[in-house]
Amino acid sequence: MSRLTTISGGRHFWPILLLVWPLTAISAGGEPTQPHESIRTAAEQHVLNDLDDENQQVSVSAGRLDNRLRLSACAQELDTFAPYGRKNSSRITIGVRCNDSDGWTLYVPVTLSIMKEIVVADRELPRGTILTAADIKTEQRDVARLHRGYVENPRQAIGKKLKRRLHADAILTPGQMVIQHAVKKGNQVVILAQIGTLQVRMNGKALSNGAVGERIKVENNSSNRRIEATVIASGVVKATT
């Protein structure tokens, strides 16, 4: 059972006194009390409202409050806030506040899960691997727990070089990759162009660095014409049609 972490409000209870002060004393004399479920729901809704990405599966669960806790029923709609401003973390503390003159404030822990399709290793990959589409795949993972980041689009990984070994099914993070330029600015390249059913090869010069899969500008040595091409291998580009 998750426990309430802090209680404060119109009447102030020092944390050390909470160890001995009866929780039932907060609302005495048979007055109406605030339903625990309404407090938990308010905390959960705050987290859901704070998420701005619709393309994800989200679930939230507020910790259960101590059954002995009795808080005066709030005449107003409950107010919520994130005291620490943490977002996209699997454990979030949400403040729930009653703004009545004799109101109260408490902090409720909320567990968050965000499921997304992200890039993982399709097999064990040694350090120094230049990633191709055959090396990676996408799987549903809980990204709220991934504090080192993740990669959603496989195209963001293809052509990059691994800085360390990855186990099969390991999550790929941006910090594990470095850009591996298959083409460097000023170097000579082979330009492939499709003309009908024929593939033409021409010599050219790269006008910028490029990794596999990236589009760069190249210059045809014969015509001095500048065109856009996609890097497909080391020193080889394909003219964009």
In a nutshell, what does this entry contain?
By secondary structure, the protein is mainly beta. It has one helix and 15 strands, in the order βαββββββββββββββ. A hairpin with a 2-residue loop joins β14 (226-233) and β15 (236-239).
List the helices and strands and how they pair.
Elements: E1 7-9, H1 36-50, E2 57-62, E3 79-81, E4 91-97, E5 104-121, E6 136-142, E7 160-162, E8 177-179, E9 181-183, E10 188-195, E11 198-206, E12 210-211, E13 215-220, E14 226-233, E15 236-239
Parallel strand pairs: 10-15
Antiparallel strand pairs: 1-5, 2-5, 3-4, 4-5, 5-6, 7-8, 9-12, 10-11, 11-13, 13-14, 14-15
Structural write-up:
By secondary structure, the protein is mainly beta. It has 3 domains: 7-114, no CATH class; 116-174, Alpha-Beta Complex (Type Iii Antifreeze Protein Isoform Hplc 12), CATH 3.90.1210.10; 181-239, SH3 type barrels (Roll). It is built from 1 helix and 15 strands. It has one helix at residues 36-50; strands at 7-9, 57-62, 79-81, 91-97, 104-121, 136-142, 160-162, 177-179, 181-183, 188-195, 198-206, 210-211, 215-220, 226-233, 236-239. It starts with 6 loop residues before the first strand and ends with a strand.
What tags apply to this protein structure?
Type Iii Antifreeze Protein Isoform Hplc 12, 1 helix, SH3 type barrels
Helical stretch count?
1
Structural class: mainly beta
What proportion strand? 35-45%
Mean pLDDT: 84
Which ranges are low-confidence, i.e. pLDDT below 50, for 5 or more consecutive residues? 1-27
Radius of gyration over all CA atoms, rounded: 29 Å
Our count of domains comes out at 3
Order of helices and strands: EHEEEEEEEEEEEEEE
Gross morphology is: elongated
The helix content is under 10%
- The count of strands amounts to 15
What is the makeup of the main sheet? 6 strands, antiparallel
First-last Cα distance = 61 Å
